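Task: complex structure prediction.
Instruction: return structure tokens for all chains below.
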Amino acid sequence: MDILNPTKPLSSSLFNTHFRRPTLLLNSKILKLKPQTHTLYSNNNKRSRLSVTIVTCSKLKTSKEIKEKDKNASGKILLSNSAPPVLSEESGGGGGNGEKVPVKTGTGALGFLKRLPRKVLAVLSNLPLAIGEMFSIAVLMALGTLIDQGEAPEFYFQKFPEENPLLGFFTWKWVLTLGFDHMYSSPVFLGMLALLGVSLMACTYTTQIPLAKVARRWNYLHSADAIRKQEFSDNLPKASVQDLGVILMGAGYEVFLKGPSLYAFKGLAGRFSPIGVHLAMLLIMGGATLSATGSFRGSVTVPQGLNFVVGDVLGPSGFLSTPTEAFNTEVHVNRFYMDYYDGGDIKQFHTDLSLFDLNGKEVMRKTISVNDPLRYGGITMYQTDWSISALQVRKDDEGPFNLAMAPLKISGDNKLYGTFLPVGDVNSPNVKGISMLARDLQSIVLYDQEGKFVGVRRPNSKLPIDIDGMQIIIEDAIGSSGLELKTDPGVPVVYAGFGALMLTTCLSYLSHSQLIANVCVHFVSYSGKSKIWALQDGTAVIVGGKTNRAKAEFQYEINLLLDKVPEIVESSLSKQSDVASG
Amino acid sequence: MIFLTLEHILTHISFSVVSIVIIIHFLTLLVNEFVGLYDSSEKGMLTTFFCLTGLLITRWIYSGHLPISDLYESLIFLSWIFSIIHMVPYFKKHKNYLSTITAPSTFFTQGFATWGLLTDMHQSKILVPALQSQWLIMHVSMMVSGYAALLCGSLLSAALLVITFRKVIRIVGKNNNLLNDSFPVDEIQYMMEKKSIFKNTFFPSSRNYYRFQLIQQLDHWGFRILSIGFLFLTIGILSGAVWANEAWGSYWNWDPKETWAFITWTIFAIYFHTRTNKNLEGLNSAIVASIGFLIIWICYFGVNLLGIGLHSYGSFTLISN
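Output:
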């Protein structure tokens, strides 16, 4: 080709014939060869590994020459075999062919080192490897849900005993050495995720981007024979390529016309969106890493009316966690209250928070609830929990006393709090008193000294209750608000990734479903591409096409489209032949 | 009270209609000539669809929130989505094999919802504080739609597997007789893929040609429905993550339900990747999708059955308190 080029630049059409055709042949070869390149690939890997072991075994300098020979041999085989996927990126680019030759001849130690990253890339972008990674991540995650997470070692000694191993081999030793007791932060799992991330990058770099480039390249076929050799071909007597072009455009093809030649393809959008999906995944992974290494978390239960400082609650989670100015903010819980359904169940709980800076100035005030957090200076405060901290009780117009409430353990998810008002001599060993129980801030159940039920009072009702001659008024029930605080620098990145992922998934679906109406063109990476060539040959048009998927449907579609091409009546024939010659 | 009666009536109408539709489907399977019956079964599915819509709307009105807050409601919603998936090709005047999957699916989910273990769950319940968010509609509807579409697609893939395996066994037998030479399964697949059907000389009989076409159709429809399901699942998981960042304090908590949804997502991502690879396409992708069927059920049902994690709302547990 390089020899031919300088001799033929006189007419542009001739130039095209000789320049474009080989690239196209190369492309088609690549597509056809794909099933075979795979097996070669795996051979490659073995070979490259072999050569590496040789290098490491023979560290003696005397064997250097043998080593180099070895490398040469392996390098040559590797290049010729692994070339197709990489070459597809370069060969059509025009000048790419010139570069290819020196690489082949100049295989030495240096060349080997130069090509090493490329080989690593080729291994990493290997699809079966990526599938294996995804599969093992899925299995690890499933294991993580089956094995109870974050328990003490004794728990695993009991659950996975050595005497009676699960499936014959699975004991606590496996769980603890592999870190499956904290699966989602175990080195095995994180390593697998990192590997998948690297594979994603390699695949995007070596396979997807070059294929998208190839898809954009125009290649016309200028001989009728070449077109007839396509998987699908047809001969339309009395037709014009222009008409065909219009019809193809209507069917969603990108159409390029030059003189009598037509080239049309579709499936380009379906090629760019997978790149977007992969980039979005990488963005999410990056954001998650940032979250894991650079965030602060903490939770606190604050009774109504008390304060806390943000910085005291938050604890760092990774080495990138750095405190900010906002950590000095003081938070005051103005009020904690709950909403109830008519049936008495809790509907929602709210906390009225005020934020003060170092000078004691109120910088923000907001009532938060579940699903409605407060955000200030990168800190987010969530309403997550509640409890009852104290009862304000008046006894015979004395007080009010603050009685601390303690959580009582009952089965089920319901909460129960209780307190005790001693009656009589407080210092006696078996002191008796009035018990008060509360499920929520709505109503308090009172029991007398014998433990008999007396009645129910609502706080704030000011309605006294008479127990053994004592007048008890429950003034108020003071709740405490369970807050969770966090700073997370990864969230914007992750959200950007979410947005991108959603968009690109939609795009790849839409781009492909729009085509699917006609041709089944596929979803991920190097798939779903149909090409059509046509050539005006006198009054006839020769049409050829190929696709890499759904051949039957492609033929069906093309037949439908070709039926639409209008037949040219005699009078306009002369005009057509003009076009053909011009 | 009127709402409850209405709901009762609608449940029973839709369930009996869908049972009749199933019977008609079986009849048309046995006897091909009943074109009129096929049409009436389509009308039956339309009736089911409207009944289920009515059921969901009634529940929405009297409970005051979107009726997908517990297992019973989500099962009804699931069968509603199945009936939608059934309707769409019908309106596009496409006769396809999807309907043989969607109609029984509607039947089974609805049957389970109305008859199964869940009788005490029929009363609609109040929403716990964490569920009171606009995200509920987006997240749950997307997830359930995703499950429905993915279930349909994976069932189609399973059907493909069954048909392919039957075919391959038969062909291998033939080859043994004629050529005294057996082909590995993959090789036959590969040859089938590689050769254009119209120039197909390897399997000249028309019977094999129709089979091949059936397999292609199953593959095509399975892929279409799976890709839309995957889209829904992606949106569902992402909206769930955003919601979790509003309600639970983090966008990802490794909660069992969350994890299984991610496993489902990964499995179907593997499906789409196997399909693009020419070496692995066809059979292998169908196998992956069939695995996906099990995974979806574990995710949708199994996790709630265990009653663990943050997602254990409105489900029944096997261990009673």
